[in-house]
Amino acid sequence: SPMQVPLQNSAVAAANGGGALVQQPAPAPVTQPAPAAQPAPVAQPVAGGGPTDLAAILPALQGVITALQGVIAALGAQQAQAGAGNVAGTSGGGAPAPAGDCGMPGCSGMEDGVVQQSPTQSPTQSPTQGTEQKAPPVPPTTGTPPAPPTAGGKLDGKDLKVKGKAIDDKQRANIQAVLEVGKEMGANKKVLETAVSTMIQESSARNDSSVDSKDHDSLGLFQQRPSAGWGTREQIADPKYAARKFFEKAIPNDKRKPDQPKTALAQSVQISGFPNAYAQWDSEAEKIVADFLG
After folding, report:
1. What pLDDT shows up at residue 86?
2. What pLDDT shows up at residue 73?
């Protein structure tokens, strides 16, 4: 009823200290904070393959990396020791190089482990340093003919004589063959003239039976004897073979005694009972050799 309302209001006021009825504002609703986002659960490895927990294998990877770094450091130390050994070896006897000297030409010292090279200087050479040493030429072996010379080599004179008579075709051919062999073997002019004068004395430059067996078993252009080791009868009968056997002795004999006269050179080969007989044909021999040499 209308009378009850004031009474209720008064009761409320008395509860509030007898004052007027004051209406309290409604409290603001409390806002609850949103729940923090939770990290997604890490998938655990499942037998038979699948995602792997990286956090679990990182320590193992770090251990592998550390081991590799140790290996690299050890290899670097070995290379440094090898390089130091090489530098020390260049000082001689394997001893370390003196301070400031790496043991190599032009080296001025070490800096930060690197060999420092000073500017290259031209070394002082002795007269024989830096020049190629060549072996002296080997003289031709006795009896081995060198390359044939190109100058001369043709016996075609018309006034050539043997024992005062003009030479015939057979004599010319025999003398030509002997001189060709001598020239091929390197005989000088003196030795060639000695061969011709010897041939004139021994056989008149003929190579047939008319001059054979005049003295024991002598035969051929130089009256060489098979029994004395000059060769077989067939060999000695060959003008070029006979000539080669003569020059094999005459050329070295002339080199040993270059000042001996031609008649002595002839006798050193022939060992004749008439050693002075060869000299009488020197003039004819000189003309024949001069014509042959051109």
Report:
1. 53
2. 83
Report residue 112 as tokens.
């930060």
Give the pLDDT confidence score for residue 269 in this predicted structure.
97
Taking the C-alpha atoms of residue 84 and residue 89, their distance in angstroms, rounded to an integer, is 9
Q: What is the pLDDT of residues 148-175, one digit of tens each?
A: 444 557 888 889 999 999 999 999 999 9
Which residues 6+ apart lie within 8 Å of 58 measured at CB? none
Position 26, amino acid = A
In what helix (H) or strand (E) does residue 161 lie, and over which residues does it extend?
strand 161-162
- The residue type found at 243 is A
Q: What is the DSSP letter of 136?
A: P
Model confidence at 8: pLDDT above 60: no
Whole-model pTM over 0.70: no
Three-state SS at 224: strand
Closest CA to 248 of 144, 120, 128, 169: 144
d(CA 250, CA 185): 11
3 state SS of 114: strand
Residue 72 has pLDDT above 50, yes or no: yes
3-state secondary structure of 91: coil
Which own/partner pairs from 275-283 qualify as long-range (CB within 8 Å, at least 24 positions apart)? 277/201, 278/194, 278/197, 278/198, 278/201, 279/197, 280/201, 281/163, 281/196, 281/197, 281/200, 281/201, 282/193, 282/197
**The dihedral of CA 74, 78, 83, 84: what is its sign?**
positive
